[in-house]
Fold:
Amino acid sequence: MRRFTVLWAGQLVSLVGSGLTRVALGIWIYQKTGSVATFALLLVASSLPTVLLSPLAGALIDRWEKRNALAFSDAVAALGPIVLVIVILARGTTPNIIVVALTVALSAAGSAFQEPALGALVPRLVPSGQLNRVNGMVQLMQAIGQVASPAMAGVLLVHVGLTAVLAIDIATFAVSLLTLWVIGATHIGTETSGKANVFGTVVGDIVSGWSYVRSQPSLVGLLALLTTVNLFTAMGHAIFTPYVLLVADPQLLGGVLAAGGIGMVVGSIAVATWRGPKRRVDGIIAAIVIIGLAMVLTGLRPSVALIAASSFAMYFAVPIAMGYDMVIWQTLCRADMQGRAFATRNMVITAAGPAAFALASLLAGSSALTSLSGSPDTRVSVAAAAEIKTLGAWMIVLGVVVVVVGLAARLSRSIRAADGALSAAGASAPSDLVQAAVDASLPSPGSET
Structure:
């Protein structure tokens, strides 16, 4: 656990730094343009590279030593803020939107490697009996970033400026790289060595990753479940901000978002400290139902208190669903296939985001979205009241769909079989085998193979 704790601390620092840049750039773009379309461009720039590069990332991660793969992810992600700082210093002014979008896409390219690399590295640092705990800690890390970054970014942007925020982000990547050096190498012989026809081999690895996931019905079922849920929850997330801003002012929106962040922290702690239900699938389904019910409550009445409570409940359940799902994937996937398997998982689930945003825009209508930049008078107008009802109704519909999808998953034979596969894995779980090899081959931290 010591090496994982060091890794966790470094990734947390890096995550908070990246969050500072993300939030600061969002504020800066809003101040410069006031355009929702520009926000949409930034959303695409931050998500599309992950979708497109995930297959390649998975193939390379399985060929590389996992610590080096994560270091590569940090190095590439750091290029985004580095380029922005160079542009600002060279031009003496803030860059245009296109430059910002390109640098965001560059950082997102690094992020395509981060989640599958981290997912493949964790089982090499802890035994399978600790996977539930450490995945809870990973979710906690993300929750802390979600709470801390927005709170810090606004203050830093006002007092030290965008360039300083970017410099802080770059420094956090350096901290992460240092911790990766401290934990030592994790190469245990499962990585694929380079060959003469590298391109052909990588393409073959990508195909084999897809084939491997498809060969396991339980993983396919869980992937289909979470992707479907993510599609509808992301649609709800896309109309959530316009809905709250029609009900209240931006300051109260910050309080609602903070309530969600606190809920995610509490849920992550619960996963890390509680072993959870014996049947992990039941925990995933229960969390999905809670998320759907929270969405329904959000749309029932335009009350800030009710929306904040619903946000807390929704984000409380997110780390439970994602944490238990990752435990199943880490246990059932062969060590030499984890990079490709996790990249496939990441790509498919992430791909639902851009699609959900486009669908939500159609559902909400342009008038609801453009009200983001409207005046206080607009928010209390009759037209705004109609928009509140429309968006609230869509939140209820989307929440009901999520609940139905979660309950229907209980009827899926392939999803139910995941718990049986976990029991069958027992002490021969890939993470146990990996840990045994690590313990035998790594005499001290910082050593190289």
User: Anything to note?
Assistant: The CA atoms of residues 3 and 183 lie 5 Å apart. The chain has 17 helices and no strands. Residues 2-33 form the longest helix (32 residues).
